[in-house]
């Protein structure tokens, strides 16, 4: 019987980190060259841990082209990169490219999907792949969901998990999510970090960058060090990724108390806070505004009117992701990266390398 190939997908969003906030604030830029370099570091780590094949979508910005060129070079051969295949798919240069690529990877039976992007990219992928784990790499503007990680270490963990060397109960973390429903229009969407309610009645440029454009925030988790809309909850009513609850705030320019918060990198705004509390799982909350827009993970996506009655519900059964710190700690305890000699070998392929309990 043939052993199933160890197969990993990589989705690098070419548009992540390029939105309007690059002009309205002093946010940095992750170029296509940078993203291609991140993918190459992942491929080296996957090759070192025995991954057979990597699947990627094409793009129009040069990421795939740079990776393909590098795959025929000496470094790729010496590092034993996995076989590389690019998905045969049309490109619309929109979020639909990310969604389609995620569906195609799921259909091909990948063990893991490495995602290069911000909160919105991870949300789009998570909505399509079910319980296939995410390996999250931050290359967007607001990056609350994907934590900052070096691709080499993250890739080693991803490869060790996909090859069965790290058990799922150690390597994986179940995340929370927020479900947004407008039954009258058949809308059922998710957010991984926060849903903001805005009095603006049109989506426009999507990103929210002014305090007066925020009426409410509902956050699945909110950490004090976060950047983005969830930072308001994180600095006022914080809640961890592990906590079985969420956080909410109500804002008004007329509030007696204001909070200075980083709504985007380099963009500090004083936001008036009038009320706050906890989000309990399974309890639907309705915005106080009769009409406006809903921003999911930082970008306005849904316009609503008085007849729509949108609801926002915290769920505890969100996507799975690799817990890089926990998995690396396990790899260290069990010497999973121990190799013989002074050449790069696949950990676990040598008879004299044993896990230590």
From TrEMBL:
Pfam families: NAD_kinase (PF01513)
UniProt KW keywords: Cytoplasm, Kinase, Transferase
Molecular function via GO: kinase activity
Stored InterPro entries: AcoX-like (IPR039065), AcoX_kinase (IPR011391), ATP-NAD_kinase_N (IPR017438), NAD/diacylglycerol_kinase_sf (IPR016064), NADK (IPR002504)
Protein name: NAD(+)/NADH kinase
